[in-house]
Design brief:
6-stranded parallel β-sheet; about 35% helix; 5-stranded antiparallel β-sheet; alpha/beta; 11 strands
Length: about 220
């Protein structure tokens, strides 16, 4: 039987702390390390593998046991030198999957070159917030990549009585309706003859910019 997936989290700022707590609550084995004793002490209610380390050199990380983790996330974005050196040490320990937080594209480029997958938490959060602010009709969306989304859009009352075929989203906007939500029911067998009611919500998939264009043209 496969053992529980194990994670290492280096750096207990807001991002690292939230990540470590989320993994621990999901039942994963988590090793955390930070130079701040108070932050480490707080994490001991979530994992018994919480360590204080003033120096994040390769020997210290090896003593802690980072090389035994399936994935290690280096959450030291602000101190760029420490971020890069620590990531390099983790990679050299042979950890199968190394993820590193970055706060700039230059830092991210270096981290990628030494073998880490890079995340930009602040930038990604800003992008998600921007999408919420730009879409007055926002309910819920899933970004498949930087250009394609699945999104729920409430239809205006003026759409009631019209059909999927008459709305013709595929031809006009390149969007496909993959589901229609009506009250507490969701219909995924969408036919061209389906006629909309007041309060219907459509779930569409397509290019983000075309979704925005469609929303702007809704009455």
């Amino acid at each position: 039987m496969k053992s529980i997936e194990s994670f290492g989290v280096i750096g207990l700022g807001r991002f690292g702390t939230a990540l470590a707590q989320s993994l621990a609550k999901a039942g994963k084995e988590v090793i955390v390390v930070d130079c701040n004793e108070d932050k480490v002490r707080e994490m001991r209610q979530f994992t018994e593998h919480a360590f204080v380390a003033d120096h994040l050199n390769k020997e210290t990380l090896e003593e802690i046991g980072m090389q035994n983790c399936d994935t290690v996330i280096v959450c030291i974005g602000e101190n760029i030198d420490t971020s890069i050196l620590t990531t390099l040490h983790v990679v050299s320990l042979g950890v199968p999957h190394v993820i590193a937080k970055a706060i700039s594209s230059d830092q991210g480029t270096v981290l990628e070159k030494i073998g880490a997958d890079v995340v930009y938490p602040e930038r990604d959060m800003a992008l998600r917030l921007g999408k919420r602010l730009l879409s007055q009709n926002f309910l819920d969306s899933i970004s498949l990549d930087n250009e394609v989304e699945i999104k729920q859009i409430p239809l205006p009352a003026s759409a009631a009585g019209s059909s999927v075929e008459e709305m013709n989203l595929r031809q006009r906007y390149g969007l496909n309706i993959i589901a229609i939500k009506r009250e507490d029911a969701t219909d995924i067998a969408v036919s061209p003859q389906h006629r909309f009611n007041v309060g219907d919500i459509i779930v569409v998939i397509g290019k983000t910019e075309r979704i925005w264009e469609f929303e702007r043209n809704l009455e």
